[in-house]
Amino acid sequence: MAGERERTAEREVLANERERLADEREVLANERERKADEREQELDKRGRALGLGVETLEQRTLETIERLALSAQRLNREEAAGKRAEARRGRQQAEIDRASAESERDLAKWLPDPSQPIRHAGELRKQALTAIEALAGTEEEIARIYEELAASRPDRRDEYRRTAEQARQTARKAREASRALTD
Questions:
Q1: How far apart are CA 7 and CA 17, in angstroms?
Q2: Other C-beta atoms lying within 10 Å of the C-beta of residue 174
């Protein structure tokens, strides 16, 4: 992994150096063109000042062709500069992508695996449902027993019925809790 990074860094340095040299060549070529344009303008001024008059059609055509060739060269250099800039952006994006992928791998190593706690929670939920259902059944059984006691022992009927009602309420609450866990 480190060797690949070093090779990538070396390629990046070489590409940057090539771009720098190409940019320097482009600056020199632009300067030569500027000076040629200045000389041409100076010659045009002198020619007009001396009264040379209108140049021949052939001469003007050749000069126009020469100017077009210079413009084409300038456009080619600008296009090359644009391609170099695009290549530089591509290399920078590739470096960003590599760093991002490495960060994601590092993050993936750091994140815990949630599958075991999820399985454990499912098992506990099943156990809780079983216990709640058993509690509801037991509370219903307690309510039935206290109703029977209330019927058989009139002297404590009110007390037994209150206890039976409390057991039924507890059974209802247990069933509501069971529904909440299954939703």
A1: 15
A2: 19
Whether residue 80 contacts residue 22, with contact meaning beta carbons closer than 8 Å, is answered with yes
Domain boundaries, the chain: 2-110, 116-182
Q: What is the pLDDT of residues 81-97, one digit of tens each?
A: 778 878 888 888 888 88
CA distance 23 to 182: 70
Residues shown for the chain? 183
Q: Which residue has the tokens 């055509």?
A: 61
**pLDDT digits over 31-56, tens only?**
888 888 888 888 777 766 665 555 57
Helical axes 157-182 vs 115-152, angle rounded to 10°? 160
Global pTM reads 0.40
